[in-house]
Specification:
The structure holds 2 protein chains of 2 kinds.
Chain A: E1 6-16, H1 26-35, E2 47-58, E3 63-68, H2 74-81, E4 89-95, E5 98-101, H3 114-124, H4 129-143, H5 158-170, E6 176-179, H6 188-203, E7 207-211, H7 215-221, E8 224-229, E9 232-238, H8 239-255, E10 264-265, E11 270-279, E12 288-289, E13 294-302, E14 306-319, E15 324-329, E16 337-340, E17 343-350, E18 358-368, E19 371-385
Parallel strand pairs in A: 3-7, 3-8, 5-6, 6-7, 12-19
Antiparallel strand pairs in A: 1-2, 1-4, 8-9, 10-19, 11-13, 13-17, 14-15, 14-16, 14-18, 18-19
Chain B: E1 11-14, H1 25-30, H2 32-49, H3 55-75, H4 85-112, H5 114-117, H6 126-133, H7 135-152, H8 164-188, H9 192-206, H10 217-222, H11 234-247, H12 254-279, H13 282-285
Helix pairs in contact in B: 2-6, 3-4, 3-7, 4-6, 4-7, 4-8, 4-9, 4-11, 6-8, 8-11, 8-12, 11-12
The chains are: A alpha/beta, B mainly alpha.
Chain lengths: 416, 286
């Protein structure tokens, strides 16, 4: 057993919740000091642990995927390991040069040319000047921007910009690479290129810690997976096991009723209490059948009546791999003007339900007159069975993808 | 990679740090190339974005010196230690502009670099340092005009000219000290943004830029205060010292310079310590 490259022991990070108002003004501080001169320091605020007693080890050359829901502590872990933010407790040992990639193109300046940005960005990522000199041609070739090397990057297309940014980062060659969902940007071609390069990095024997929502990418790249749940390590195992654990975790959370959820955001004077899946005739059902008209009712309790409000009620649909399939909301559908009652429900009609069989996790979001009142991640699940979507009398078998699209085919001979 | 053998690799330990962490200057030194590139970026972008480019560096002290000459030199008849007032004012404004610009740049530097701070690690001290250092180029650009003016007015420097670099180093120390304080304070208290222009304006008037120190010291002495009290404003020592070194005004203002040097040093050390003590929360607050 060799010495681990990354050793994390008892790592904790605490944040103050009250810091939603990000910074103080001098006046406020002075006022507080005048009002309560004998109270030492700041008012005790509610604290949350973004990371709690996290321990794990990563062997040299290991590629580890860190997965977890939003707010589970993934990004915080990465920020602590990258030394961007300090831990509250615990200790981390990193053996080797660390390169962290929390986004591509950190420090790029639009006024500077491609050439200039390569040097600037390289230096920011921790490369020595001589090293950049040596890799310069390689970076330019990878980014495919030879002709625009001396053009300010503000004239670049998004694709060129991303390619250049990633090219610099990809040539960092650290012994330990910490990567956030950099791959979530750009078109699929670019993502493929990045994934390919990441694979190279992994094969070159470097240690990689990869944080992502993209379970497919995690499974493809990583051997080991770490699942974070409310700041703690819920599972650290072989990647297939970890992914399974994670998908089960998503289900388990979605199974608790919306009313009991406490991990919600928004001002909370209106709260969604229950979600009902109904047939078009209003009868409650447990599963949706693809092809049928489905109605979703979002029951709520409100502290006030707001007649003729502007209500943007939304829910999104993710498959169990965490891939966002769609977002249905009253703003896009043009039904913004709705009345808020003390008790009531917002109803969404989804004609000819077009998801394939499976389980989907949905988040709820409600905004009244521009104020976010309630927001619950993975608030409920949609269970779907395959139905006669195309009206052919035959059942469609789940083969590829999650969506069903109404469509027809026909054949035409070439008139010429 | 032959160069990346984990067995001989550097070990990074991350732990919560005490409130009184040292300034870790060795680490800043290790990141000197980044410092260089940030200075280079600031300079490059500033000159790219402005129509007049480098001319601004001369225009600013020159135009101010012209206005001062008309209103304070001619109309108000403020003495200038026997020197032609335009030369007297320009020499003072040269170092003053460096200080004022450096203060403005550095105080906004940390907040302005939020995108870097939240995404990548490096010693944060590099940020205000680079903001201050990028002002040195402006100073270098504006200095030849001083030489031209000296030749025009036939004022020749004496042996004291050898002290000029030390006086400039003192200016650098002073602006760094104040810049460290303000840049760190600015992260937590965004009012600093409004305070700085006001502060610079007031500071100009309590610094012997428009008038020579020789008009203030007799009054101080009448109050029973020694002349070096004026030097508690580090820029008083810098401006007077710079005129003495370049224009050869009277005797060496030793006590004034010493007082300023001590204050600048204290500002710098406390500034660095304060900066370090709040730096760990930058990424969470910015």
């Amino acid at each position: 057993m060799s010495t681990p490259t990354i050793r994390v022991s008892g790592l904790s990070k605490r944040f103050r919740i009250g810091e939603l108002v990000r910074y103080k003004s001098l006046r406020e501080s002075i006022q507080n000091a005048v009002k309560a001169p004998f109270r030492r320091g700041r008012r005790p605020k509610e604290m949350i642990w973004a990371l709690r007693d996290v321990s794990f080890e990563v062997a040299p050359g290991e590629v580890v995927g860190v997965i977890g829901r939003n707010g589970a502590g993934k990004s915080t872990l990465l920020k602590v390991l990258s030394r961007i933010t300090e831990p509250t407790e615990g200790r981390v040992e990193l053996r080797g040069r660390v390169g962290s990639l929390l986004e591509v193109g950190t420090g790029f300046h639009l006024e500077l040319t491609g050439r200039e940005n390569i040097y600037l960005n390289g230096a920011i990522l921790g490369m020595k000047r001589a090293e950049i000199d040596r890799k310069f041609d390689e970076i330019v070739a990878f980014a495919e921007i030879e002709r625009f090397l001396d053009t300010p990057v503000k004239h670049y297309s998004t694709g060129m910009y991303l390619r250049l940014a990633f090219a610099v980062a990809a040539h960092l060659e650290p012994e330990i690479l910490l990567v956030d969902e950099v791959l979530a940007v750009g078109d699929s071609e670019f993502q493929k290129k990045c994934l390919g390069k990441m694979g190279d990095v992994a094969r070159a024997g470097r240690t990689v810690l990869f944080v992502s929502h993209n379970l497919a990418a995690v499974q493809q790249l990583c051997r080991t997976g770490i699942v974070l749940e409310q700041g703690r390590v819920a599972c650290a195992a072989d990647v297939a096991l970890a992914v399974r654990h994670y998908t089960q975790q998503v289900r388990r959370i979605a199974a608790t009723s919306v009313a009991e959820r406490t991990d919600r955001a928004g001002s909370q004077w209106l709260r969604v209490t229950q979600v009902a899946l109904c047939h078009a005739d209003g009868r409650e059902i447990r599963q949706a059948l693809s092809g049928e008209d489905v109605v979703l009712r979002f029951y709520y309790a409100s502290e006030r009546d707001v007649p003729d409000a502007s209500v943007n009620f939304a829910f999104n649909v993710r498959n169990l791999h965490g891939l966002l399939l769609t977002n249905l909301n009253s703003r896009d559908s043009g039904n913004l003007r709705m009345t808020v009652h003390r008790r009531g429900y917002f109803q969404c009609t989804w004609p000819r339900f077009n998801l394939r069989s499976g389980t989907y996790a949905c988040a709820i979001y409600c905004e009244v007159n521009g104020e976010v009142v309630d927001w619950v991640q993975s608030a409920f699940e949609l269970q779907v069975e395959d139905g006669d979507f195309f009206g052919t009398g035959r059942l469609i078998h789940r083969e590829q993808g999650d969506m069903l699209i109404p469509h027809t085919w026909s054949s035409h001979g070439d008139p010429a | 990679m032959a160069e990346s053998l984990p067995s001989v690799a550097e070990i990074t330990v991350i732990e919560p740090q005490g409130r009184l962490a040292g300034p870790r200057l060795r680490e800043v030194w290790a990141y000197r190339e980044l410092l260089y590139f940030l200075v280079w970026r600031d300079v490059k972008v500033r000159y790219k974005q402005t129509v007049l480019g480098a001319a601004w560096a001369i225009l600013q002290p020159l135009a101010t010196a012209a206005v001062f000459t008309i209103f304070f030199g001619r109309l108000a008849g403020i003495p200038s230690d026997g020197l032609p007032y335009p030369l007297f004012a320009y020499a003072g404004l040269l170092v003053w502009t460096f200080f004022a610009q450096g203060l403005a740049q550095s105080s906004a530097s940390v907040v302005g670099s939020a995108n870097l701070i939240t995404k990548v690690y490096f010693p944060r001290l590099v940020i205000p340092f680079s903001a201050v250092l990028s002002g040195l180029l402006d100073l270098a650009i504006a200095t030849p005009l001083l030489v031209v003016m000296m030749a025009y007015y036939r004022v020749w420097p004496g042996a004291a000219i050898v002290a000029a670099p030390f006086v400039l180093a003192l200016a650098l120390l002073a602006v760094t000290g104040v810049g460290l304080w303000l840049s760190a304070l600015n992260v937590e208290y965004r009012d600093v943004r409004f305070v700085v222009p006001f502060l610079v304006q007031l500071w100009l008037f309590v610094t012997p830029v428009i008038y020579p120190a020789s008009v203030v010291t007799p009054r101080l002495e009448r109050l029973g205060l020694p002349g070096w009290v004026l030097g508690l404003n580090p820029m008083a020592g810098v401006v007077e010292g710079f005129r003495w070194a370049t224009l050869g005004t009277g005797a060496a203002p030793v006590s004034l310079l010493s007082a300023s040097a001590v204050v600048a040093l204290v500002l710098c050390v406390t500034g660095a310590l304060y900066f370090r003590s709040v730096e760990r929360s930058f990424a969470d607050v910015v």
